[in-house]
Automatic annotation (TrEMBL):
Belongs to the glycosyl hydrolase 13 family. InterPro entries: DUF3459, GH, GH13_cat_dom, Ig-like_fold, Ig_E-set, Trehalose_TreZ, Trehalose_TreZ_E-set_sf. Its EC number is 3.2.1.141. Keywords: Carbohydrate metabolism, Cytoplasm, Glycosidase, Hydrolase. It is found in: Cytoplasm. It comes from Rhodococcus xishaensis. It catalyses: hydrolysis of (1->4)-alpha-D-glucosidic linkage in 4-alpha-D-[(1->4)-alpha-D-glucanosyl]n trehalose to yield trehalose and (1->4)-alpha-D-glucan. This is Malto-oligosyltrehalose trehalohydrolase.
C-alpha cells in the first residue's frame, strides 16, 4: 500500500492514475489530496485534474523515466548503494571548488562517466565538485536551468541512481558535492505546477514568471522549495547547494526564504552531524546574504563574487565591454581584492546607478566569497562561448589562476580551465518544440546583435553540434602546452593547502602594492609575496624574497630586495630566506 499525496488547491477534483487505473482522492482543508493505493515500487503514476483527460506528473516526482510530460515513477534509492557511512563532510573554508556540467564533462555525458574522471580532480587538489543543475527538464540536453520537476534527476545523465553513484564515489575519494539548484523560475516546457496550485506570482524576471513566495497560499510553495533542498541533503547525501540567482527571488515576507532555508538546513546539519553548505549566486553585492543571522543577516555560508572575476579578467585581458567597463585598472583590482566588492555603494556605469553595499571586512571572512577566473556564465554567456584560452597567452592564464588561488577567497575552477581547454562552452538547448527552439535561437542572436556581434558568428543553441563541440577533450591534458598549465594549477593548489598564509581569510591582513604604469601588482600575505606582471614586457618589482613557484623563471636582485619578471608571468616569493625553493619549470 502506498499513500499518494499532492497539494492541489485549484482543481475541484483530483484522481491518481496508477499503472493504468484511476483512483479517487480525498481533499483536506489545506488543499492536500490523499489516496492509499496498492502500488509496486517502480509503478507509473500521475494525477488527473477535474475533467481533463491528461495524466500529469507529480510535482514532487522522484523519477521521470519517460520525460517531463509523461507520468512519474515511484522510486526509492537503494540503501545498499551507499558506502559513505564514514563520510563526515567537508568545510567549504580552505577548499577549492570545481564546477562542471555533467553532459559535457565527458564524451558520454553521464554521472558514471564523470566518476571515471574523479581521480583527476583529487590529484588536482579539489575539495568540492559542483554540478550544474540536474533537475528534470524537457529535451535531451541543456544547461539545466530550465528544470520543471525539481525533485527528479534528469534521466539522460543517469537519473536518481546515477546521481547516488556519483555522490557516493565522490565521498569515497574525499570529495564533497555541490548541487546547483534553481528556485527563481521554471522552464518553458513541461511546467504544469500552475494547474495544481498558485506556484507562480504576477511579475517576471529574465527567464519567466516569478515564483510565489509571499502572496496568497505561498506557504506551501515555500515548503515545496525548502523540502526540495532538504531532500538533496538528506536522501542524496549532497554536501552543499548553490542557489541560482537569488536576486531574482521576489519575497516580501517578514522572514526571507533564504533565511528560512538557512534555519532549516542548519537544523538538518545538526541532526546529520556533518556540515551542510548554502552558496548563493547574487547580483546584489549585499553582504546581508552571508552575514550571520545573529547579526541580522540571512546566514548563508557563501556567495559567488563576480566583482573579483571582473576585476581579474579585465585587468589581465584588457576587455572593457559591458559590465567590465568599470574594471581593468590595477587600482580596481587592488580595491576589489581587499574589499570583497568593487561596487559597495558606488556608481556602476553598466547599471547607471549606485550599486551594492560595503562589506565589513573585520566581521565577514573572505572565504565566504567564491572567486574564479571563469564560470559557466562567464564563458557560456559570451556570444561564441569562447574560453580565455582562445584569446589570452598561457602566461596570462597562469596569472589569472595565481590571482585566484593565492587570494584570500575560496577558489572555484570551471571544468577544463586547469589545462587551458580549447573546447568552447556554448549555450545549447534541445527543445523538442520547434517553435520554442526557434524562439530561443532568435532571442540569442538578437541579444548579441544589439552588442555589435555578427549574427553569423553566434552558434545556434538548437544545433546538436553546438552541444557536441562544448564537450571537453580529455586528450588535451597530455599535450605539452596544456600539461604545463595543469602542472602550474596543481602546484598552486598544493602550495595553498600547505601554507596557512594563503588560506588566511581576513582581508585586513592582505596588503596589495601595484604600479599602474608598469603593470605589476603584488599581494603580501604573511611571509609570502605573490608578484604579478600583467604586461607583455619584463619588469622589475621592488619586492624581495626567495622564489618558491613561478610561471617563467624570475631574476632575483643580488640584494634580495627586488625581482624581475618576464612578461605575463607571476612568482610566489617567501620572505623567509631559510626556506628551500621547491619549484620547477
Amino acid at each position: 500500500m502506498h499513500t499518494f499525496e499532492v497539494w492541489a488547491p485549484i482543481p475541484q477534483s483530483v484522481r491518481v492514475h496508477v499503472d493504468g487505473t484511476e483512483h479517487d482522492m480525498s481533499r483536506s482543508p489545506d488543499g492536500w489530496w490523499h489516496a492509499d493505493v496498492d502500488a509496486e515500487s517502480g509503478a507509473r503514476y500521475g494525477f488527473v485534474l477535474d475533467d481533463s483527460p491528461t495524466v500529469l506528473p507529480d510535482p514532487r516526482s522522484p523519477r521521470q523515466p519517460d520525460g517531463v510530460h509523461l507520468p512519474s515513477q515511484l522510486h526509492d534509492l537503494d540503501p545498499a548503494g551507499w558506502t559513505d557511512t564514514m563520510w563526515t563532510g567537508r568545510q567549504l573554508a580552505g577548499s577549492v571548488v570545481y564546477e562542471l556540467h555533467v553532459g559535457t564533462f565527458t564524451q558520454d555525458g553521464t554521472f558514471d562517466a564523470a566518476i571515471e574522471k574523479l581521480d583527476h580532480l583529487v590529484e588536482l587538489g579539489v575539495g568540492f565538485v559542483e554540478l550544474m543543475p540536474v533537475a528534470a527538464f524537457n529535451g535531451a540536453h541543456n544547461w539545466g536551468y530550465d528544470g520543471v520537476l525539481w525533485y527528479a534527476v534528469h534521466e539522460e545523465y543517469g537519473g536518481p541512481d546515477g546521481l547516488q553513484r556519483f555522490v557516493d564515489a565522490c565521498h569515497g575519494r574525499g570529495l564533497a558535492v555541490v548541487l546547483d539548484v534553481v528556485y527563481n523560475h521554471l522552464g518553458p516546457s513541461g511546467n504544469y505546477l500552475d494547474r495544481f496550485g498558485p506556484y507562480l506570482a504576477d511579475g517576471a524576471n529574465s527567464w519567466g514568471r516569478v515564483i510565489n513566495l509571499s502572496d496568497k497560499d505561498s506557504g506551501e510553495v515555500r515548503r515545496f522549495i525548502i523540502e526540495n533542498a532538504l531532500r538533496w541533503f538528506r536522501e542524496f547525501h549532497i554536501d552543499a547547494l548553490r542557489l541560482d540567482a537569488v536576486h531574482a527571488l521576489v519575497d516580501n515576507s517578514t522572514t526571507h526564504l533564504l533565511e528560512e532555508l538557512s534555519i532549516e538546513v542548519h537544523s538538518l546539519a545538526t541532526h546529520l552531524r556533518r556540515p551542510l553548505t548554502l552558496i548563493a549566486e547574487s547580483d546584489l553585492n549585499d553582504p546581508k546574504i552571508i552575514t550571520a543571522r545573529a547579526a541580522g543577516g540571512y546566514g548563508l555560508s557563501a556567495q559567488w563574487d563576480d566583482d573579483v572575476h571582473h576585476a581579474i579578467h579585465a585587468a589581465v585581458s584588457s576587455e572593457r565591454q559591458g559590465y567590465y567597463g568599470d574594471f581593468g585598472s590595477l587600482q580596481a583590482l587592488a580595491h576589489t581584492l581587499t574589499h570583497g566588492y568593487f561596487h559597495g555603494g558606488t556608481y556602476s556605469t553598466f547599471r547607471g546607478r549606485n550599486h551594492g553595499r560595503p562589506m565589513d571586512i573585520r566581521r565577514i571572512p573572505a572565504d565566504t566569497m567564491l572567486a574564479y577566473t571563469c564560470t559557466h556564465d562567464q564563458v557560456g554567456n559570451r556570444a561564441t562561448g569562447d574560453r580565455p584560452s582562445e584569446y589570452l597567452t598561457p602566461g596570462q592564464l597562469a596569472v589569472k589562476a595565481a590571482l585566484v588561488l593565492c587570494s584570500p577567497y575560496t577558489p572555484m575552477l570551471f571544468m577544463g580551465e586547469e589545462w587551458g581547454a580549447r573546447t568552447p562552452f556554448q549555450y545549447f538547448t534541445s527543445h523538442p518544440e520547434p517553435e520554442l527552439g526557434e524562439a530561443t535561437a532568435q532571442g540569442r542572436r538578437r541579444e548579441f546583435a544589439e552588442h555589435g556581434w555578427d549574427t553569423d558568428d553566434i552558434p545556434d543553441p538548437q544545433d546538436p553540434a553546438t552541444f557536441l563541440r562544448s564537450k571537453l577533450d580529455w586528450t588535451e591534458p597530455q599535450q605539452p602546452a596544456h600539461a604545463r598549465l595543469l602542472d602550474c594549477y596543481r602546484r598552486l593548489i598544493t602550495l595553498r593547502h600547505s601554507r596557512a598564509d594563503l588560506t588566511d581569510p581576513w582581508l585586513e591582513h592582505l596588503k596589495v602594492e601595484y604600479d599602474e604604469d608598469k603593470r605589476w601588482i603584488a599581494l603580501i600575505r604573511g611571509d609570502l609575496r605573490i608578484v604579478f606582471n600583467l604586461g607583455p614586457s619584463r619588469v622589475t618589482v621592488p619586492v624581495g624574497g626567495v622564489p618558491l613557484l613561478w610561471w617563467e623563471e624570475p631574476e632575483v636582485d643580488e640584494t634580495a630586495s627586488a625581482i624581475t619578471l618576464p612578461g605575463h608571468s607571476f612568482a610566489v616569493l617567501d620572505a623567509e630566506p631559510i626556506r628551500v625553493c621547491t619549484s620547477r619549470r
